[in-house]
Amino acid sequence: MPAPASGSDRPPVARRLLYITEEQTAALVDEDLAMEAARTAFAATVHGSSLPSLAVHGSDPRNRFTLKPSASATHAGVKIGTYWPDNAEHGLPRHHSTLLLFDQTNGRIAVVLEVGTANAYRTAAADALAVDLLARAGATTLAVFGTGHQAAYEVEAVSRTRPIAQVLVVGRTAERAEQTSAALAANGHNARSVDAEEACSRADVIVTATTATSDDPPLFEAVWVRPGTHISCMGADAPGKRELPPELFRRARVFCDLPEQARRMGESQHAPTQTVLTPLGDVLTGHATGRTDDNDITVFDSSGIGVQDLYLGLALLKKMDISL
After folding, report:
1. Residue 2, pLDDT score
2. Where are the alpha helices (DSSP H) in 135-187?
């Protein structure tokens, strides 16, 4: 019989699976952690390989989930993001996210992190990073299209990168917009609800965070957007979703997280084929130019990439003194 394997010939011993709950990650995450993870992630896209995401639906087509794989030189994983619209009827968030990180020695799952709240910080951090790199330095008025759970995170994150003095809220209904603006005001923001045309005519920065699709009218008219505006589009993350008027692409300089993915499932799936898409990571690292003039209209198309989730998860583990 062959001799038993010894030394380095022995297969690696599987470590105990770690499960980090939603309550744990929600207590650990904050804007600073999310922003630092976003900077690291977008810088990593320049020389690393960013893997495209997959958007599918559950057994009920109304229920959707996305798979966002990621890999660095030392770690790898996949985030599963879910959108179950009927959850609101049960007092649960419509969105949730679970991040799986691999044990690199044997390919098994080493850590499961529930990151529903952390994912909201992560999404807002990408928006805020784009605002920091692309918006005019003196931007003071922020318009937010969307009254879901993400809106408040977007306002908080953007307000840390620009001296936002006024927040204008646009919703599908006036009632929802008024509720959201009241909640923002209770958290110290000078917020009020307005219609879409007024929001665009006054805004220095526009954030769209809706579930709108190409079956819906665009959120606003292209001609309402004034020169110098920066727009961060956070809602389009699957084929068929759309928030912007396609005509706006002809007036704007467009930036994104991953060009090939933005063309397939981001806002840029509706852009003319000749539209140039500049990766935000290239701007962050000085490999590309961002805003060149105060009159530029800049658009950030955020379809969401797995490397954002990877570095967010690693930052959360580091805060817990856990290493892989």
Report:
1. 47
2. 150-159, 174-186
